[in-house]
Amino acid sequence: xxxxxxxxxxxxxxxxxxxGRAAKQLHISQPPLSRQIALMEEELGVKLFDRTRRSVRLTxxxxxxxxxxVDILNAVAQARRNAVAASRGEDGAISVGFMMSSAxxxxxxxxxxxxxxxxRVDMKLAETLPNLLADAVRSGRTDVGIMYRPEDLDxxxxxxxxxxxxxxxxxxxxxxVKARVLDAALLANESFVSIPREIAPLVYDLVVGHCQRxxxxxxxxxxxxxxxxxxxxxxxxxxxxxxxxxxxAISSGGAVFKPxxxxxxxxxxxxxxxxxxxxxxxTFVENARAVWQDLQHAPGxxxxxxxxx
Length: 309
Prior knowledge:
Layout: H1 4-16, H2 19-26, H3 30-44, E1 49-51, E2 56-58, H4 60-88, E3 92-98, H5 107-117, E4 121-127, H6 130-139, E5 144-147, E6 156-171, E7 191-194, H7 201-213, E8 219-223, H8 227-235, E9 241-244, E10 255-259, E11 265-273, H9 279-296
Helix pairs in contact: 1-2, 1-4, 5-9
GO molecular function: DNA binding; DNA-binding transcription factor activity
Organism: Pandoraea terrae
Pfam family, one: HTH_1
């Protein structure tokens, strides 16, 4: 019967292509290693290595088994990490996907506090477009996602972790930059730069809905996937836009940010899959909820607090 150690022996030989070096790496002598590989070949009924006095190389069967063996060992390692994290609540690994704009509001606080509270958790960050991030979380490729809440939440749980108003973005030469608070109706004849609806339907609908409540449907001239690109295009005089207020932290000499009257409010959510049993997900969610609660009471924080219960 093939056991886990046989896969470990096989992978070591496959990676070194040298029985002596593999045996040293495994802290065993070479003859037992050679016997175990031979028993593995006998059990499988295939030849895994072509061996001569001068070289060792994988057969086609060996190359295929190597891919599967690495996957098996990785899966076992992940299971071990999850078991340790479950028992101790402090070890493990978590992958965090985030949309770019969250780096200007909630992402730094979430990751900083989580890393401080769980220093032995291996946290991996990856920036992803919102429309792709939801699928990555749902499929398990990413443990948690920080993004605008998607329309399709099938199989997902979510929690609000940030809420803020949106502001208008104008070219600095625009006559309306003198206004202290901007009424969206004054932008009725402007060309807009917007995020595509397929990338972030929540933000797109907020912008269009606010304009429609102000008596017009925005004429979208340009679309860009990233908020900083939108701001840059506005700064070049190619239109106006509405973005979350936290994006005003971006330094753009050509763009001016103006508060909107009755501004629409945008939420950032934390998403995770109901089928994800990584125990680190629970600790990340718990930490995120606490950070959001603290942020709502922080002096000077530009957030829209939860409605009183």
